[in-house]
Design brief:
Number of helices: 0
Shape: globular
Order of helices and strands: EEEEEEEEEEEE
Oligomer: single chain
Number of domains: 1
Radius of gyration: 14 Å
Length: 120
């Protein structure tokens, strides 16, 4: 069985836009606790999704059969706590990406997506 999801990342100044399409007739579960920010070819911490400003254990995300999901991802290593809440530092120039972990019918799938951020 090949990868059950189609995915895409696009760069933004503070985070990465992730779009996932479940290409199966079964539920697809994203495991945020086993998904990571990738910098220069190696994992570099977890991901804050939907700008929740929370580093720590996260509930899994379920994508129903044929369904789609989109969110901005922010590397936890760039999470800033401020008096008014939190913010995220800019992503560095160079290779940035995501290692996404998902399960479908008990089988784990991992997909790595990268973007290259260039200086202005």
């Amino acid at each position: 069985m090949g990868s059950p999801f189609g995915s895409h990342t696009g760069g933004a100044q503070h985070g990465l836009l992730l779009k996932v399409k479940n290409k199966t007739d079964k539920e697809l579960t994203i495991d945020w606790n086993r998904s990571f920010y990738v910098r220069d070819g190696a994992t570099n911490g977890g991901l804050d999704y939907m700008s929740r400003c929370y580093a720590g254990k996260k509930e899994p995300g379920i994508i129903f059969p044929g369904g789609s999901f989109a969110t901005y991802l922010f590397p936890e290593v760039f999470l800033l706590e401020e008096w008014r809440g939190c913010d995220h530092e800019y992503l560095p120039v160079g290779d940035n990406g995501v290692m996404l972990s998902a399960t479908c019918e008990g089988k784990e799938f991992r997909e790595r997506m990268n973007v290259r951020i260039r200086p202005n």
